Amino acid sequence: MIYLVEDDDSIRSFVIYALNSQGMEAQGFARPSDFWKAMEQRLPDLVLLDIMLPEEDGLHILKRLRDTAATARLPVMMLTAKGSEFDRVVGLDAGADDYLPKPFGIMELLARIRALLRRTGEEQAPMTYTVGELVVCPSKHLVEVGGKPVSLSLKEFELLCALLQERGTVLTRAQLLDRIWGYEFDGETRTVDVHIRTLRQKLGPCGDLIETVRGVGYKIGEDRP
Fold first, then answer.
1. 112: nearest Cα among 79, 87, 90
2. How many whole angstroms separate alpha carbon 7 and alpha carbon 89?
3. Mind listing the pLDDT tens digit for each residue in 19-75?
4. Mutual orientation of helices 106-123 and 9-21 as an angle, nearest 10°?
5. Cβ neighbours of 184 (radius 10 Å)
């Protein structure tokens, strides 16, 4: 699946049509808010991202993707009218895997998409976390307990990945809020506790791997089997 975030209706429709005609499943979004809703339901194999967008600019979207465990290595190609050398450097330094200025030829776009998917597919050996009977593969969005798949929401999955990435380290509620929900989140720190509780329930016998450090936050300990 390829997601395209582009507010120009004609460009979005044309690119989606071209991708579909080449046998690539694709979905387009005019507004970032719709893109984020779709991300909660399904993670794509590649994101095509404009920079000048309503609600939230493409570089900020890119930063959020790179700062989130589940999407840190998700391939992203910028498609934008900002085509100066400086703009390209900014986009690539921000974490974009490729940068194609508008106007672009559809054949070149398709070739770059194939190359990017091929390259990232070869480079990204799946990283797997294994703690006792818990197995988590972020790149495949896979969670198993005792060999059986577990279905998590995107936020629950990101919480679990964050704790596994920092295994042995206590992450405070404020750190988890900033890392998972972003600095713009204006809710309460109790949001973390609620998600941890449902995460533990879904993990069943592996739920107690997530330790509560009273008055501080949560961790998955290094010494747990």
1. 79
2. 23
3. 988 888 899 999 999 999 998 888 888 999 998 888 888 888 998 888 887 788 889
4. 60
5. 9
